[in-house]
Amino acid sequence: YAAPQLHGYGPMNVNMAAHHGAGAFFRYMRQPIKQELICKWIEPEQLANPKKSCNKTFSTMHELVTHVTVEHVGGPEQSNHICFWEECPREGKPFKAKYKLVNHIRVHTGEKPFPCPFPGCGKVFARSENLKIHKRT
């Protein structure tokens, strides 16, 4: 995998650079107004060619994540948990639980909602388990 793909910042998702080092949490929380976050979810009924992504744009990560969760992932009534993000390498393979799909979608959106609480560290994580491991080191 190329470095941009590994961090989830590839051409299929958002137009933003990776943030690392001290102060990354604050840069993450105060994202630039001009940042454009694009929803690349393909509705299941749109899977016939030509595929059409949602393509709604958002100015904050919170808005994008809320949109994907409410409009595309669905509530507890949803029985199948499949990622329909454009070019997702899972290719329709379902998750066994909704929370696993929600965690997976962070690969596409770049959301990292778990900041390190230690002053000056600035690291943020997409998964709470990774923050727990980091805090032990």
Q: Classify the secondary structure makeup into a structural class.
A: mainly alpha
User: What best-fitting shape do the alpha-carbon axes yield?
Assistant: globular
User: Within the largest sheet, what's the order of strands?
Assistant: 1-2
- CATH topology (level 3) name: Double Stranded RNA Binding Domain
Number of strands: 4
User: CATH architecture, please?
Assistant: 2-Layer Sandwich
**Please, how many domains?**
1
Outline the biggest β-sheet.
2 strands, antiparallel
Rg value: 16 Å
- What name goes with the CATH superfamily? Classic Zinc Finger
Name of the CATH first level: Alpha Beta
Number of helices: 5
Mean pLDDT: 78
Outline of the structure:
The chain has five helices and four strands, in the order H-H-E-E-H-H-E-E-H. It has helices spanning 3-6, 24-29, 61-73, 98-109, 128-136, and strands at residues 37-38, 57-58, 114-115, 124-125.
Question: Helices, strands, pairings?
Answer:
Layout: H1 3-6, H2 24-29, E1 37-38, E2 57-58, H3 61-73, H4 98-109, E3 114-115, E4 124-125, H5 128-136
Antiparallel strand pairs: 1-2, 3-4
Helix pairs in contact: 3-4
Q: Can you walk me through this structure?
A:
- One of its GO terms (molecular function) is DNA-binding transcription factor activity, RNA polymerase II-specific.
- It is found in: Nucleus.
- Keywords: Developmental protein, DNA-binding, Metal-binding, Nucleus, Repeat, Zinc, Zinc-finger.
- The protein is mainly alpha-helical and 137 residues long.
- Helix content is 32%, strand content 6%.
- The strands form two sheets. The protein has a two-stranded antiparallel sheet with strand order 1-2.
- The longest helix has 13 residues, at 61-73.
- The two termini are 27 Å apart.
